[in-house]
Write a structure and sequence with these properties.
The chain is built from twelve helices and eight strands. An eight-stranded mixed beta sheet has the order 3-2-1-4-5-6-7-8, sandwiched between helices. The C terminus is likely disordered. The protein is an alpha/beta fold and 333 residues long. This is Short-chain dehydrogenase. Keywords: Oxidoreductase.
């Protein structure tokens, strides 16, 4: 109850920020002379909190590389950002995060540009109401939300480590997860259960993929520490963000329900705040393998915090990728 009241009131936590804090507010402390040196890749940036994250980072002077499945939507976003920030440096490249081959092409294109890479924000998300498969024959939510970001991160990790070594600037990876990871029980954490159309549950599949995002951050942070790399990875819960809630019927009950719901939902800028805080704010320097909500470090589920489960999932994921025999993928043991 105390946590809920704190959330509703927007009371600041130890970081000085809370549920009502916006992405612009958490990045106001960032020096333009510093951020203008940075390059960030943001997946899922053509809409929602991804678009807001891109807008705010560009406003702070960060060079943006935006991977997008729909380049027309990406071009519209670029135009909108440059209207507000004419100096913004924005590069658009095509990607389909559910496709290993597409991820490889994107990484090859990005690396050929010879740019540094300081920030990687794994933000894109997919929710499937019915059972769908990627071209690599994986359940679509699992493929997009987790496998795609796992592969993208692994293929760009050496570049991030190299950039950090050359510049002395800490690299930061942000996995956008969700509080729904708490819904997954230990005995139900099995992606093969998602493959029966009669038993498929889109919410459960989504929750499992978001749990996997946290486990990925936990295991990779352990590996980065062991490697003594100046790169950190953390996971964030952005909150439940306002979308187009419509009220078809007027009246006391529907208006009251809408009013109550609106108090629990965040604006897009509030939803992007935790991502921007972890990606850019100096307070999170040196923080690695943690889970954030409302711009404060908080507890994730016991399963999400299980180091053995995290390592097991990482090994299983690497095996899935290696079975596809893609050349040029560097994954450490």
């Amino acid at each position: 109850m105390k946590t809920t009241l704190k959330y509703l009131a927007g009371i600041a936590g130890p970081s000085g920020y809370g549920s009502k804090t916006t992405a612009e507010q958490v990045t106001q402390v960032c020096s333009v002379s510093f951020t203008s040196q940075l390059t960030a890749i943001i997946t899922g940036a053509t809409s929602g909190i991804g678009a807001e994250t891109a807008r705010v980072l560009a406003k702070r002077g960060v060079r943006l590389v935006i991977p997008a499945r729909d380049l027309k939507k990406a071009a519209i976003l670029k135009e909108a950002i440059k209207k507000q920030s004419p100096w913004a440096d924005i590069i658009l490249l095509e990607i389909d995060l559910s496709s290993f081959a597409s991820i490889q092409r994107f990484c090859a294109q990005f690396l050929s540009l010879g740019l540094p890479l300081h920030i990687l924000i794994n933000n894109a998300g997919k929710f499937s109401q019915k059972l769908e498969f990627s071209e690599d024959k994986f359940e679509l939510s699992f493929a997009t939300n987790y496998l795609g970001h796992f592969l993208l991160t692994e293929m760009l990790l050496d570049k991030m480590v190299e950039t950090a070594e050359q510049t002395g600037i800490e690299g930061r990876i942000v996995n956008v997860s969700s509080v729904v990871h708490n819904w997954v029980k230990r005995d139900q954490f099995c992606f093969s259960q998602m493959l029966d159309p009669k038993k498929y549950n889109g919410t459960r599949a989504y929750a499992q993929s978001k749990l996997a995002n946290i486990l990925h951050a936990k295991e990779l942070s352990r590996q980065l520490k062991a490697r003594n790399a100046n790169v950190a990875i953390n996971a964030v819960h952005p909150g439940i963000v306002k979308t187009g809630i419509t009220r078809d019927h007027k009246g006391f009950i529907t208006d009251s329900l809408y009013f109550m719901a609106s108090k629990l939902l965040k604006s897009t800028s509030q939803g992007a705040a935790s991502t921007c805080y972890v990606a850019l704010n100096p307070q999170t320097r040196g923080v690695n393998g943690k889970y954030f909500a409302d711009c404060n470090e908080c507890h994730c589920s016991a399963l999400a915090n299980d180091e053995i489960e995290a390592h097991k999932l990482w090994k299983h994921t690497r095996a899935l990728i290696h079975r596809r025999s893609f050349p040029g993928i560097t994954i450490f043991s």
